[in-house]
Input
Amino acid sequence: MWARLNYGWRLLGTAVGFAVFSVGGLLMALMLFPLIAMTAPDTATKNSRIRRLIHAGFRGFVRLLSILGVIEFNQSGRKQLLACRGEILIANHPSLLDVVLLMSLLPEAQCVVKHQLWNSRFLGSVVRGAGYIRNDIPADQMIEKCQLEFDQGTNMVLFPEGTRTVPGKPIKFQRGFANIATLCGADLQPITIRCTPPTLLKGERWYEIPDEKMKFSLVTHDKILTGDYLDDDLRTIAARRLTRDMEQFYQEKLCNG
Amino acid sequence: MLTRDEIFTALSDALEEMFEISPADISLSATLFEDLDLDSIDAVDLVIKLQQLTGKKISPEDFKTVRTVGDIVDQVSALVQS
Output
């Protein structure tokens, strides 16, 4: 009986969560973003204000989900994240909520976003307004943009898997993050995100919630100094070594506790 | 004057040294991005390396149409003859 009540409550909470996210996002896109766009003196200020607004929105959203009892969020890595400057924050990507959780902890982070979102009715104005980087621009332009951000001390969030993690399959990283790290000389801050039980996986619908409350944890690990890799090797080899090492690191962390 | 064979050998050495590609995988028909797992950033590094090897300027534009190892040999061969 209790379990059913609990399930029903969390399903309702999840529905409320999705509704608030949609309506809140729409209100932001329709009212707040245009307001910021009109009042900001230049693009950099506009981007920065919109990123802060996204952060505030996500923070409020995560708080709401926690209060509703839909999720429990252990954010022990928060302090170390806030101290990052001009670094690449890499994370595994188990769930739809990862971006929201991460951005709720980062006041003003840059990210590379899949280009399909640029034309999305819902998220289009968000990703354009925040000045995020499209993943389909030529490599040299991408590096240039990243370098500018690092120079200003901005951190960059990247999911090296390129897509949501498939449970049970070995972790496979794309080399993009290592290319950016080795070309811009930015250090890496590895983050592991855990979600038990697995939920909001790729291909799952919002109402397919687990039998118990979703517990998320976000843990930071020791930084990886890119310079150590570049000292011994050609950049191209360093990027490959870095990718392999990180792949193995995540494989071990996520499979063996 | 470099022959096509010499260009191929030099290119194979560069691919092995820069990208850890086993010489056994390198053939004229091997595609750079699929078979040899290069990415667009690697291509930029490779162009720089080829410029050093040939002493000629290679524009990234010329390199856009390149798909296979054989395409590079053709390009470089045309370049050193010009």
Summary: Chain B is about 60% helix and 0% strand.
